[in-house]
Recover the amino acids of this structure.
């Protein structure tokens, strides 16, 4: 394998470890766990899907990434 190929493999392995650790440390309290990687709950009567390993979530047909807990705090005041 070339040096570039080895670099990409190392990068892939690193990000895979980061995703596994992130998913492991998230608290599933209040969520319906469909799989280890996909959770959901209702927020203001609308389904909120969450993928903790990627920090992605979908609400109202829009997929976003970032702090789902901050997003939920902002939406509970609506």
């Amino acid at each position: 394998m070339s040096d570039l190929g080895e670099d990409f493999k190392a990068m892939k392995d690193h990000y895979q470890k980061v995703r596994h650790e992130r998913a492991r440390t998230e608290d599933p309290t209040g969520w319906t766990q469909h799989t280890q990687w996909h959770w959901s709950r209702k927020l203001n009567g609308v389904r909120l899907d969450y993928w903790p390993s990627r920090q992605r979530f979908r609400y109202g047909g829009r997929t976003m990434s970032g702090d789902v807990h901050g997003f939920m705090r902002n939406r509970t005041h609506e």
In short: Strands lie at 32-33, 39-43, 46-51, 56-59, 62-65.
